[in-house]
Every structure is written in structure tokens, then in C-alpha cells.
Design goal:
There is one protein chain. It is built from 13 helices and five strands. By secondary structure, it is mainly alpha-helical. It folds into two domains: 213 residues, Rossmann fold (3-Layer(aba) Sandwich), CATH 3.40.50.620; 81 residues, Tyrosyl-Transfer RNA Synthetase, CATH 1.10.240. The longest helix is centred in the last third of the chain and has 30 residues. It binds adenosine monophosphate.
């Protein structure tokens, strides 16, 4: 059984792309591995959120993960900032992280280009904090997107460097969790590209029926098929891809057949798709609202999660301090 750790960005609400591309797999993964899920609230400080925004988004994301089916009885779900051990390991790792290698990471270079007015030390050492998050639980697998692969490589480097420097075989070198063929990409409703919050084309799991219907009815289409068995254009294929995720397979087959024989009416397709998305997201929204409004329950889970996560974190830190020479006289 692998120890799997996944950080969750505490920015913004979850959309159906996040669900099918990540959450659905996380829910499955928690039954097959020892999973740690944490909300990366320290990491979010690089963009300087207000206290109210920080608190609000952490609560939102925590409740959304639970509503999606992450089970705190099975997995360890916690806030990064509840583990002081992480900050200490981050400090220790920073001593062996070199400016040159940190400056060369693609994610850092991207930030320098995108926000030259806010190139802070937290951004530079982002991969060190990420490494601390992972190795403090001696995790072996990390589900990462393409943009985080280089940072995971840095984690391996820091773990290896520690082992080498202190002549120990203490930290495992974590590798990317492979979801195999189950990873899907959910497209946006604007005819091209993927669904994303920064793309402004997302349907959120917490959107109500009216909002969902409005968004779907506005989705980009084309002027319709003109030949039998024509390949769908990108915007139509996108609607079929979303339909494949949320609808019954007969529904998708029905509209694909209609497309093939040129009888499809896009208004009907969209109406059906909107209904199916609403039906799919309804239980999520209900569960989310229940959880979000129950502060006592949330507080209890956060406390229990921190307590569970601190078991492995404090053991690691104790071992690391000793290996490094911080010992009692
Ligand atoms: P983000 O919201 O970009 O931070 O992504 C969080 C997780 O959701 C990552 O694992 C992404 O790969 C996944 N994800 C984001 N957008 C999509 C999408 N449109 N389709 C599939 N997966 C997605």
C-alpha cells in the first residue's frame, strides 16, 4: 500500500473538470492507499489574500472535498497550516536548497514573467515547501498535474540530498501517482480548450440549476452537420465529451446518432445536457450546503485531521532532528 499525499490549492471553487479530472480519482484512491489530503493554505499566501479571503476559501474547499466523497474516516484530511512540523522541515530543507536550482524551475520563471511586481521568497522556495509537505509523511506517491512534475522532481532531489548528506536511507523518493487511462480532460463550453476557472468557461459543482442551464444554453456550437457520418467539429465534440461524463450512455448514443444522420437540434442537445449536469451536481450541492453551514462539524474534522496528520509529521521531524545532530545534551 502506498502512502499518497495530495495538496489541494485553496483558490476558488471546484468545477466539473476538477471533479472528473481529479476528485473522482481521489475518492477511489483513498480506498486503495493510505491517503493524506491537505489544503495548501500556506502556499496560497504567495498571492497575499486578505484574512477574510484566506479563511473563506479554505472553508469552501474543505467542505467541497468532503461533499465530493473524500472520507475523513478513511483518509487524513487536514490544513497545511495546522502542522507546525511542516514549517520546521521547510526551514531545514531550505539550507540545502540552492538559489540557482530554485530560480531555474519553470513555475518560478512563469511567475516572474506573469507577476514581476510580486516575486517574493515564498515563490522562490515554493518547491521546498512542497517537498516538506510530501516527505514529512514519507509519502511514496503524489498525484500531480503536468505543471507540477518538475516540482516533484525537486522533491526527489531534496530527499536524495538529505539521505546522501547524512548517509541515511530515511526519505523515500516519491513518484507521480499514475491514474492510467482513467484521467479525462473536460473541455470548456466556449468551443475550445479545457474547462478552467481562469478560462471563465467553468460549470461549478455548486452552481444552481438556473446558472447551469444558462451556461449550457450559451455554449458555442456550429451551423450543424451537412453530410451523413460527418466527424463532429470541436465545439460539438466538447458537448459530447461533457455528456459522456454526466449522462447515461443511451443519451449520448441518441444524440450522436442524430448528429450522424443530420437530424440533431442543438437546442435539444443542450437542454438534455443541462438537465443531466443539474441531476449530476444536485446531490453534491445539497451535501456541500449541509457541510458548509455546520461549523461545529467542520471544526471537529479539521481538529481530528490535524491530530492524525501530526502523528507522522512529528515522528519524521523527531527523526530528522536527531539525524541532523539536534540532540539532547
Ligand atoms: P486546478 O483547478 O487547475 O488547480 O486543477 C486541480 C486539478 O483538477 C488538477 O489535478 C487538474 O489536472 C484537474 N483539472 C483542472 N481542470 C480540468 C479539466 N478541465 N479537465 C480535467 N481535469 C482538470
Amino acid at each position: 500500500m502506498d502512502i499518497v499525499l495530495s495538496g489541494i490549492r485553496s483558490t476558488g471553487k471546484l468545477h466539473i473538470g476538477n471533479y472528473f479530472g481529479a476528485l473522482k480519482n481521489f475518492v477511489k484512491m483513498q480506498h486503495e492507499n493510505q491517503c493524506y489530503f491537505f489544503i495548501a493554505d500556506y502556499h496560497s499566501l504567495t498571492t497575499h489574500p486578505t484574512p477574510a479571503d484566506l479563511h473563506g476559501s479554505v472553508k469552501q474547499v474543505f467542505a467541497e472535498y468532503l461533499a465530493c466523497g473524500i472520507d475523513p474516516e478513511i483518509a487524513t484530511v487536514f490544513l497545511q497550516s495546522d502542522l507546525p512540523e511542516v514549517s520546521e522541515l521547510y526551514l531545514l530543507l531550505n539550507m540545502n536548497a540552492y538559489i540557482g536550482e530554485l530560480e531555474r524551475t519553470t513555475s518560478f520563471k512563469d511567475k516572474v514573467r506573469l507577476q514581476p511586481e510580486n516575486v517574493n521568497a515564498g515563490l522562490l522556495t515554493y518547491p521546498v515547501l512542497m517537498a516538506a509537505d510530501i516527505i514529512i509523511h514519507r509519502a511514496t506517491k503524489v498525484p500531480v498535474g503536468k505543471d507540477q512534475e518538475q516540482n516533484l522532481e525537486m522533491t526527489r532531489k531534496f530527499a536524495r540530498r538529505f539521505n546522501h548528506m547524512y548517509k541515511v536511507d530515511y526519505f523515500p523518493e516519491p513518484t507521480a501517482y499514475n491514474f492510467g487511462k482513467t484521467l479525462v480532460k473536460i473541455p470548456g463550453l466556449d468551443g475550445s480548450g479545457k474547462m478552467g476557472k481562469s478560462e471563465g468557461n467553468a460549470i461549478y459543482l455548486t452552481d444552481d440549476a438556473k446558472t447551469i442551464t444558462k451556461k449550457v444554453m450559451k455554449a458555442v456550437t456550429d451551423s450543424g452537420p451537412t453530410m451523413q457520418d460527418q466527424e463532429p467539429s470541436e465545439p460539438i465534440q466538447n458537448l459530447f465529451t461533457i455528456m459522456q461524463a454526466v449522462s447515461e450512455s443511451e443519451t449520448l448514443d441518441y444524440f450522436k446518432d442524430q448528429y450522424k444522420n443530420c437530424t440533431i437540434r442543438y437546442g435539444d442537445l443542450k437542454k438534455q445536457l443541462a438537465e443531466d449536469i443539474v441531476r449530476f451536481t444536485d446531490p453534491f450541492r445539497e451535501k456541500f450546503e449541509d457541510i458548509y453551514s455546520n461549523n461545529t462539524y467542520l471544526r471537529k474534522l479539521v481538529n481530528e485531521g490535524a491530530e492524525k496528520a501530526r502523528v507522522s509529521a512529528s515522528q519524521t521531524l523527531k527523526d530528522v532532528r536527531e539525524i541532523m545532530g539536534f540532540k539532547a545534551f
